Amino acid sequence: MYQFSLKAFSIVFQKAVEKAAPDEKLKDRVANLIDSITFSVCQYTARGLFECDKLTYLAQLTFQILLMNQEVSAAELDFLLRSPAQTGLTSPVEFLSHQAWGGIKALSSMEEFCNLDRDIEGSAKSWKKFVESECPEKEKFPQEWKNKTALQRLCMIRVLRPDRMTYALRDFIEEKLGSKYVVGRALDFAASLEESGPDVESQGKKLGYTFNNRNFHNVSLGQGQEVVAEAALDLAAKRGHWVILQNIHLVAKWLGALEKKLEEHSENSHAEFRVFMSAEPAPSPASHIVPQGLLENAIKITSEPPAGMHANLHKALDNFTQDTLEMCSRETEFKSILFALCYFHAVVAERRKFGPQGWNRSYPFNTGDLTISVNVLYNFLEANTKVPYDDLRYLFGEIMYGGHITDDWDRRLCRTYLEEFIKPEMLEGELFLAPGFPLPGNLDYNAYHQYIDAQLPPESPYLYGLHPNAEIGVLTQTSEKLFRTVLELQPRDSQAGEGAGAAREEKVKVVLEEILERVTDEFNLPELMARAEERTPYVAVTLQECERMNVLTRLMQRSLRELDLGLKGELTMTSDMESLQNALYLDTVPESWARRAYPSTAGLAAWFMDLLNRIKELEAWTGDFAMPSTVWLAGFFNPQSFLTAIMQSTARRNEWPLDQMALQCDVTKKNREEFRNPPREGAYVHGLFMEGARWDIQGKLKELTPPLPVMFIRAIPAEKQDCRSVYPCPVYKTRQRGPTYVWTFQLKTKEKPSKWVLAGVALLLQV
């Protein structure tokens, strides 16, 4: 949807020139012009962007202005966007993770940040206070670091508290461009009209355009209404009427004709003639159908549903009236369950913002699900003497809402919410929908709205059953995505200053040579097969892994050598070579490698270090084919095959049927260094991380994915598995969850398992 034409830009530009304040002094007049043009273009563009992209656009705008004015150093901006980190370091201070310390070391190697690492170690107390403060971007940095430039302070916050970067960036833009650029406010529709939305009818009324005055045409497309729309446009163009065309995305075949028709009317039509169109954005670029011409010449305004629990709960309740509340003969039960359903509806819709920890996949829950559920509730209460809680939960959770859900873990989550919200206790006044938010009693319609305003705690992950860390995770990922996007937007050609193109090639060559130098030779499979005396399940897994590693390293070496020749001019550059060059420059894993590798969310440098560790692990296995004292489960392309091998060896040894086996998982109290030998059967496994909770050991606060102690995994007959007080915990390869699912581990728990379900607790093989 983000298409803007030069023609539209020219009009905005001209209007901004007219609006700029006059001044006698040339210098001040130029400043006024620049300010007016920058702000007008910024407003015109931002109005057509979705909330999630506005800050990215503002950041790009600010950085480009500062670079043009030579107010910031390109090297410091490059650090901010990439945030490189030295890998494999151990943090000497408890308030910084190893990864953050790697970032500090990388930053300290720049001249302006010399000794930052020593200073943090030496004055740990004041740095700890700074790092652990609620809003570090508002605090002063310790010692002389508070005198650093705004961009240098951003670089430090990016390393120390990446979760606060969206806030820090807003402050930075405000400081550099002015506060009018960052005030978040609803757009004045009347102002957009001057330049010609969501509120067309009421604006039309004020200006005398109404259905009754016969100068206002509202056509809802999608039911063969195209002919009506064309007639309305022809009439309106002649007489200066307004036309609304709703849901133009539903009539793909007609859009070409619409574009032509508007082009015809753009000349010689009545000056008051206006057309307003609404459309849903396409879910993927491939299914995008609104023609470029329509998008480029239109003034685009986005309209998004309200964010946050407060707005969503009011919005859910808005689907009903006082009459709805009075329609059921069993008033108390009906009202209680209706309110609980509204809360449930708001929770499932808004939980999306927590990414994969919220839902594995994104679902189109809509108000229809809620209103139909309330109708079902009414029918069931009228027809039964006792409230059929089980039936209601099943209908809501498996059919009305569950009908959208395609992932089993998400289905479990939906079911658990309903088990917590809709149960007999709700009528005894003992039910809390969230900490500090009890289910209200029997009230009238307006009183329910007032109850939400008065009683609902402020927005936090607790309202969804999640731990506050979930928010830190979302904020960190949002800022990572923002900087990655801005980095990809940086100009690539040599116009970005002399030698930028050459510097780019240099950088690529360095990365290319380092990878070629450090990647090891292939595993000699025939020799390994000859050496393995017994083809145990474990040996089979190891050989399979070596084979897959060979395919990957072979591809890496071949593609890098080709690119090397291309850069030297000895081979013609192909599009594959160009995308490889791009990936090396942007520190991302090349697409062709990722297809042959394993899921990973890491940048190229960290991914390559991880690859070398995996090769080392395989070399140790194939040295004597003996089981290591503890196994790094994440080191496998296919961890399932190793877990299956545990069951196969036990089944063979005891002559048990394999399909009746299960894995027993016990978390030990030790770390990997404390193990000397493997167990007699099964395996000790290290390198797992927990998201959403932590195992009962002392850890760091704000640590999003605390490591798990070593786990002892062995196979037992399925019927011997203890299912009491355990939480069936999904294991995923990465934080993307969903398709990276590996296995389910039964973890012992003292709390109710439902607590961990709502908190989205999972084990991850890599973070």
From TrEMBL:
InterPro entries named among the record's database cross-references: AAA_lid_11 (IPR041658), AAA_lid_11_sf (IPR042219), DHC (IPR026983), Dynein_C (IPR041228), Dynein_C_barrel (IPR043160), Dynein_heavy_D6_P-loop (IPR004273), P-loop_NTPase (IPR027417)
GO MF: dynein intermediate chain binding; dynein light intermediate chain binding; minus-end-directed microtubule motor activity
GO annotation, cellular component aspect: dynein complex
GO biological process, one term: microtubule-based movement
Gene3D superfamilies in the record: 1.10.8.1220, 1.20.1270.280, 3.10.490.20, P-loop containing nucleotide triphosphate hydrolases, Region D6 of dynein motor
Dynein heavy chain AAA lid domain span: 334-470
Domain Dynein heavy chain region D6 P-loop: from-to ranges: 199-302
Domain Dynein heavy chain C-terminal: 476-765
Name this protein carries in UniProt: Dynein heavy chain 9, axonemal
Organism: Capra hircus
